Structures are given as C-alpha cells and as structure tokens.
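Subject — a protein and its fold
Fields — amino acid sequence, structure tokens
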Amino acid sequence: MDPERLTIRNVVFDVGNVLVPLNYGPFLAYLTESGVDLTDVPAWLARIGLEAHERGELTGEAFLERLAGTAGCELDPVRLRSCWLDMFDEAPEMFALATGLMSDYRVYLLSNIGDLHWAHLDGRYGLSGLVHGALASFRTGAVKPHAAIFREAERRFDLEPAHTVFIDDLSANVRGATACGWRGIHHLDPVTTCAELRRLGVRLPVHFTES
C-alpha cells in the first residue's frame, strides 16, 4: 500500500471518557434514591430519549423533564440539573496530548453530547476553541457510530478519511469511524493511546516520552 496513504494529518478526539472522564455515581445514586428504576439502564435511557437529546431533537430542559417523570417522587429541578452537569472529571494528560499535537497536525473534537453538557464543558474548559475545531452531535442531527456524523465532520473540517485517526472510548464508535475509511484507536488509557498513535507514525509532543 502507498505509504503516503497512511500518513496521518488529522487527529480527532472524543470528549467524554477521553478528555473528561465520566463519574456517573452521584447522579445515579440520586436517581435511585428518588425511586427511578435503573434495573435496565439502556432501556431507561431509550425511554427518556437520550439519543434524541444528543441528536438535538430534544432540548436539555425537555430531556430533564422526561427524566424527572420516571421518578417515584417530585424531583428538585435545581438538584437534578446540578447532578446531570456535575459528572465530569478532567484527564490532564489527554488535554495536553490534544493541544500538544496542534503544531504538527490538525486536531478536532467529535462528541455525542447534548446542549446542556456542551455548554457546561465549553464554559469550564473552552472546548470550542481548545483545538482547531469541535463538532457536537446535537448540532448535526446525527450521533456516533452512524456514518452521517463522520461525513459531516469530513465536510466541516475538510478531512480526508485515510489521513484521519479517531480516538474514542467506545469500540462501536471506533468501528463507525473505520467503516468510513478513518483510522481508529480504542482509548483505554493515555499510555495505550499514545502507543497506538506512535504505531500510526504520529509524532507525539516532546513531553510524551516512551513508556
């Protein structure tokens, strides 16, 4: 295969559980205390419309109203909103990796996310201007792993699939990217992700030494 075809020029990062680890514990504990039946979380998320919310078809406020309707008692809307927003930690190594790559590569963010979480994280970390560009699913009408969101990223950021690598914590989303001709890395931890980037020939920032 032509080596030029394998040259990485664009690095695209997921946000949740890549740049900002998720801590659902306090949120789920509050829901359980409030009588929400979480024995089948995927079915519950489908019922309250999480994917529609992340596609931008359901606003954050409407989504939280649906969520509150599944509780066994009236929820405090202020506490519910706070618990929904306050589930993110920070992975400083991954922030440093993303911004450190910008001198040699085009770097972007691509996230399945609704309007409230995006506004919260953008306000805290400046995601909109952190790297060369960012695409939030609620603004596209499509979510990973569907091809539409990857094609929209290609259109907006002028990405050539064969020269683009995507980093995500969910293997299904990585498969969605590779099905579109992108390279993919299943993010488990910073060390593994850096090793995979090196394997693809990506020059890492100088402070990311070999482990």
Remarks:
- Strands lie at 10-13, 106-111, 133-136, 164-168, 183-186.
- The chain has twelve helices and five strands.
- Residues 1-5 have pLDDT under 50 and may be disordered.
